[in-house]
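Dear all,

This email documents one entry for the complex benchmark we are building for the journal club exercise. For each entry we list the sequence lines for every component of the assembly. Then comes the predicted three-dimensional structure of the complex as a token string, followed by one or two observations. Please use this as the template for your own entries, and keep the labels exactly as they appear.
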Amino acid sequence: MSRPFYIKQTKSGKAFDAFNLVFMVIILIVVVYPFINVLAISFNDGYDAVRGGIYLWPRVFSLENYKFVLEDSSLLRGFFVSVLRTVIGTVTAVLGNALLGYIVSCRQFAGRKFMRILFLITMYFGGGLIPVYLLMTRLGLVNTLTVYWLPSIFSAYYMLLCASYIQNLPEALFEAARVDGASELRIFSQFVIPLSVPMLACIAIYVGVGHWNSWFDVNLYSKNGTWDNLQIILYRILNQTNAISKMTDSVMIAEKMRGIQPLTVRAAITIIVVTPILMIYPFFQKYFVSGMTLGAVKQ
Amino acid sequence: MVEGIKKKAGHCWKMFQKQRQLWLLCIPIIIWVVLFAYVPMYGLLIAFVDYIPGMSIFKCNFVGLKYFRDFVLSPVFLQLLRNTLAMSLLGLTFGFAAPILFALCLNELKEGWFKKTVQTTSYLPHFISWVVAGSMIFMLLSNEGIINDILMRLGLTEKAIPFLTEGKYYWVMYTLANIWKGMGWSSIIYLSAMSSMDSELMEAGAVDGMGRLGAVKHVILPTILPTIVVQWIIGIGGILNAGFEQHLVLGNTSTQAYWDVIDTYSYRYGIQLGYYSVGTAVGLMKSIIGVALVWATNWFCRKKLDTAIF
């Protein structure tokens, strides 16, 4: 909402508007520019890029960086793990939270309050990093894919979101199905899920972006590197703690052969990692915001 | 009497029969929540014992508050506290004000594609990971990066400034990086608070000759004040959370004296070095202080500002 018509526009107001416009353009540039800079570096020749001074456009255009990334087996595997984790994690979390939301919003279910409280407590109290880490080690979940999605199937926050949505669905429909002898799982899969697609899409986006972006738990639990995702590979290149990793060795070899440099490889991986997010961004940004404001109301 | 109990029990059983399916669905969920949420809470007890992995907590040596005391008395404690407080205070001032100012400025723009574009684009950094953000920041700030390139071309500096490896730049870099990543996203909550503004108040003000600045001061700011207070209380509660992933990404050994905060210390001791009890004690102490701070700020806000979150 801008200036209402009944508030007079003054000279200083006009000056402010001009200044404000410039200010907003600057913010726009500051937000977008780092992406453009990385994009330019990723398409530049390695040796040339190390000299610096690449602003908006590659100076010596080259596709070698992407070729290198797409040929490297550990990076391809990382990409595959990232996709697998995101898909499994999102599907299980969406179904899990929807089911939990349905259970705690069934009016005639005696245990619904108990379940609600059981989860609400976890919103305020938690074990923290180290007890969780010890538990995962104890359960033998280190070096598995399970450790990425199983501990995040349910969450109190998404439970509340789902429950508040499902409560507003027509209860009579479920009751009628129950009278006709439909099982609860059937009601859930044939009525609740199709009716709550907008809300589920919102949760899917949040959870999916979270899984795609996660790296810290990979750092903790992927000890032997079997389940390294793209983010963690990028992190290790960034921190240069990868003396052991195969990745650097191959970068070193390629460096001599084709003018590949860690800098430009890093830029190429960065672009590959953000591209999926940039692609879904325009379509789902309305979900981003609706999810945020829903959460704000709940708080 | 007995008859009554029997009847009631029978009723309960009938109810249970009817809801059997739902209870069955609950069983795996209950197992899940106990395992992944309540067992770690019990695991916090290792802060009070000499924990040896694989042993039951009750068989370990009970040491009471030893690890808490050791931490507070350790030589590194003051440095950790300094870094933690310095970075969260920078966050609570600049990082806190930035989204409010941005929301106010955005609100003054005319409705249209430009406003929408600015708003939508400003959320973007929120959706990338700190690793990706760090990768971009490194490219901008490295010795060959464009920030140094611009500074040298303008003649502001002779040699490239080592932003990434010199500790004194770290706090500023951390604060700016947080603002870059979070400003647009945090502004949503203020913008949505502004949309509930009372337009009658605005009209009444206009009749009395209120200008645009007056509208901001007397109508818009009071409208979003409760939201600001709530965010402030949450912010104070998190005063000991001065970033974690950020430091693992942006920090390096040459800047450690400036980025090492309570959380990274807890992680380093608790997980990387394997002193589980020490790390847990440090983390637990931090959480308890956080809860106490939220409670105290909330009390203060209710007394003085008449708004509170609980």
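Observations: The longest helix of chain B spans residues 77-108. Strands of chain B lie at 49-50, 61-62.
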